[in-house]
Specification:
By secondary structure, the protein is an all-alpha fold. The protein has helices at about 5-25, 30-50, 65-80, 85, 100-125, 135-140, 145-160, 170-190, 200-205, 215-230, 240-245, 250-265, 275-285, 295-300, 315-325, 325-345, 350-365, 370-395; strands spanning about 95, 400.
């Protein structure tokens, strides 16, 4: 059946989302959201092509069906792997946060002051000029990327040590104002991915009772619509109007179709080099870089005239370039299990489970259009910041309890 992998992937993803909601008594889980986002980012341009809309010119149309099979393989692994059953195996020890107030105060200061300073610097250098995103970032400098890396991690730590019901006095306004200030800065600089922070914020708001599926659907629709509006005018893929722009947000089809073509033309697999390099990069905090980031490698291989990392990458593309098709189910089985284990800890109120669930809702979805290096680096920075703040607030000690 023509386009069969697309239809089967849709059925599988929708079935798993429904199963997750029923199994967790109305709660929409990170795994359910990941299935939805992966389906959207990967099959959106495929559906646009199916409907006759323009798609990005770099997509290898001769490999659309092969790419659809790769996406289907990823989704079927996410949906059939028994992640929830395996996630019931828990550690007997649970971390305890003894001084949440001090951690909260440090986080708020570290989140608010740098944004104010950088926003002022950016406005002084850019003002109301018509610079594009690249020019704006060049005007601000590397500190822009430092802020975009660390600010979400501080937010996740703040949300972990500050349940919504624990907010008092002026604290709700302080937290809300800090978040809105960061959103305003990202919007001013032309960044779009800050919209994904709405997911961990929404989970934080509804942590102690089921999240309304309708509210979450409205949130997702509003977020994707805003994401689309910020993308208009960026290429021929948006010439078909609003629906075309809505469907053409994912770059996975462009990256994966080209990798499939290169592999068929003799490109050698990497046999895990990018994963090992990312792990070493993580453990050395970026001091040792064994290989180029795949986003840079891809942009140079695709077009020497392109800016490094101009096209991003794709999480399943990394599995392909490392191990071929066999790497895809292994990668997505791990993703499903990690999301489920962290969410189990989130529901049990374990600080690490709560923290990593907020982390997953942002970075794992963000990395769908990226590579494992993004996850490795952000993960180690998150843990260093979290445990560093804990030890600072608890005079160098960590506390555990028997679960």
């Amino acid at each position: 059946m023509e386009h069969g992998f697309f239809y089967l992937a849709c059925v599988a993803a929708i079935s798993r989302i429904g199963y997750e909601v029923i199994s967790f008594r109305g709660k929409v889980t990170p795994l359910a959201l990941y299935c939805f986002c992966y389906l959207y980012f990967c099959f959106g341009p495929y559906l646009a092509n199916l409907l006759g809309f323009s798609i990005y010119s770099g997509i290898q149309k001769a490999y659309l069906d092969e790419a659809a099979f790769v996406f289907f393989l990823a989704i079927i692994t996410l949906t059939l792997f028994p992640a929830n059953t395996l996630s019931r195996i828990e550690s007997p020890l649970a971390l305890v946060v003894k001084s949440p107030k001090l951690v909260k105060q440090i986080c708020l200061l570290a989140m608010a002051l740098p944004v104010c300073a950088l926003f002022a610097l950016a406005f002084a250098r850019i003002g109301f000029s018509g610079m594009d995103k690249v020019q704006r970032i060049q005007a601000v400098g590397i500190v822009h990327y430092v802020l975009l890396t660390l600010w979400p991690l501080l937010l996740f730590i703040l949300l972990t040590v500050t349940p919504r019901k624990a907010l008092a006095g002026k604290e709700p306004w302080m937290v809300g104002g800090t978040v809105l200030l960061y959103f305003a800065y990202c919007f001013y600089m032309g960044e779009r991915d800050f919209a994904l922070l709405a997911l961990p914020l929404f989970f934080w708001l509804y942590k102690d009772h089921p999240i309304s599926t309708m509210k979450l659907a409205l949130l997702a629709t509003g977020g994707v619509t805003a994401f689309t509006l910020m993308s208009l005018g960026r290429g021929n893929a948006f010439e078909g109007g609003g629906l075309s722009a809505f469907l053409n947000q994912g770059s996975n089809l462009m990256v994966t179709s080209n990798i499939l073509a290169w592999l068929e033309q003799g490109q050698q697999v990497m046999w895990g080099q990018s994963y090992f390099s990312g792990l070493v990069n993580m453990l050395t905090l970026g001091a040792i870089k064994l290989t180029l980031p795949l986003s840079i490698w891809f942009s140079r291989a695709y077009s020497p005239a392109a800016n490094d990392g101009a096209y991003g990458f794709s999480i399943e593309g990394e599995a392909l370039i490392n191990f071929g098709l066999a790497g895809v189910p292994f990668l997505f089985a791990f993703i499903a299990l990690f999301l489920a284990v962290c969410y189990r800890g989130y529901l049990a109120g374990r600080p690490l489970g709560v923290l990593l669930t907020y982390f997953n809702l942002f970075y794992f979805i963000y990395a769908i259009r990226g590579e494992s290096l993004i996850l490795f680096k952000s993960f180690i920075y998150c843990l260093i910041l979290f445990f560093g703040l804990l030890m600072l607030s608890q005079r160098g000690r960590l506390y555990f309890r028997v679960a």
